[in-house]
C-alpha cells in the first residue's frame, strides 16, 4: 500500500507549484476548459497511483508531462471512436443503389453506339486489353487508336447523359447518376 502521508508531503507543494502550468498545457491541447480540468484531475490521480515512486523520481515534472500527453492521446482515441449519427440519417429510407442502376444502363447504352466505338470501349475499358495490342489488331498506330477511343468515350458520355440520366461536368466524365427510369 502506498505511503500517502509521504506522497502528500512531497506532492502537495510540487503540485501547487506546477498545477497551473499543467492546466495551461492541457488547455492548449484540448481548447476546452472543462476537458482540461478533467484531464488535470486524472493526471493527479495517476500521480497518486504511483505514490511509491513519484517522490523519488529524478524528473517528476517530465513524468507528469509524459503522463498528460498519454492521457490526451487516450482521450482523443476514445472521442474519435464514437461519431454521433444525425437524426435525419437514422430515419432515412434506403435508396436504390445508383451504381447498380448505372451498371444496368451501361450495356444498353453501349449497344446504342456505333459497333466500332462500342467494341473499342469494351476492349480497352471493360476488358482492360492494352491499347497497343488493340491498335496492332486493327492495324492502327497507337496514336490513331487513342484518338478513336477518345471519340468513342465522348459518344458514350453523351449517350449516358441522354439515356441514363447521368450528369456530366467539366472536371470528370461522369459527375452524378440521378436515377434509372
UniProtKB/TrEMBL annotation:
GO terms for biological process: DNA-templated transcription initiation. Keywords: Sigma factor, Transcription, Transcription regulation. The keyword Cell wall biogenesis/degradation does not apply. InterPro entries: RNA_pol_sigma-70-like, RNA_pol_sigma-70_dom, RNA_pol_sigma70_r2, RNA_pol_sigma70_r4_t2, RNA_pol_sigma_r2, RNA_pol_sigma_r3/r4-like, WH-like_DNA-bd_sf. GO terms for molecular function: DNA binding; sigma factor activity. Residues 104-156 form the RNA polymerase sigma factor 70 region 4 type domain. It comes from the Bacteria. Residues 15-77 form the RNA polymerase sigma-70 region domain. Belongs to the sigma-70 factor family. ECF subfamily. This is RNA polymerase sigma factor sigM. The lineage of its organism: Bacteria, Pseudomonadati, Pseudomonadota, Gammaproteobacteria, Enterobacterales. The gene is sigM_2.
Amino acid at each position: 500500500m502506498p505511503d500517502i502521508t509521504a506522497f502528500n508531503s512531497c506532492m502537495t507543494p510540487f503540485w501547487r507549484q506546477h498545477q497551473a502550468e499543467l492546466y495551461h498545457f492541457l488547455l492548449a491541447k484540448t481548447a476546452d476548459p472543462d476537458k482540461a480540468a478533467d484531464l488535470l484531475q486524472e493526471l493527479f490521480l495517476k500521480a497518486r497511483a504511483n505514490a511509491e515512486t513519484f517522490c523519488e523520481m529524478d524528473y517528476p515534472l517530465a513524468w507528469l508531462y509524459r503522463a498528460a500527453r498519454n492521457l490526451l492521446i487516450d482521450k482523443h482515441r476514445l472521442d474519435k471512436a464514437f461519431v454521433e449519427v444525425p437524426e435525419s440519417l437514422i430515419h432515412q429510407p434506403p435508396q436504390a443503389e445508383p451504381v447498380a442502376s448505372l451498371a444496368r444502363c451501361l450495356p444498353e447504352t453501349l449497344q446504342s453506339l456505333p459497333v466500332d466505338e462500342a467494341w473499342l470501349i469494351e476492349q480497352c475499358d471493360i476488358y482492360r486489353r492494352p491499347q497497343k495490342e488493340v491498335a496492332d489488331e486493327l492495324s492502327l498506330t497507337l496514336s490513331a487508336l487513342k484518338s478513336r477511343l477518345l471519340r468513342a468515350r465522348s459518344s458514350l458520355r453523351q449517350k449516358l447523359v441522354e439515356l441514363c440520366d447521368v450528369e456530366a461536368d467539366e472536371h470528370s466524365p461522369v459527375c452524378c447518376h440521378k436515377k434509372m427510369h
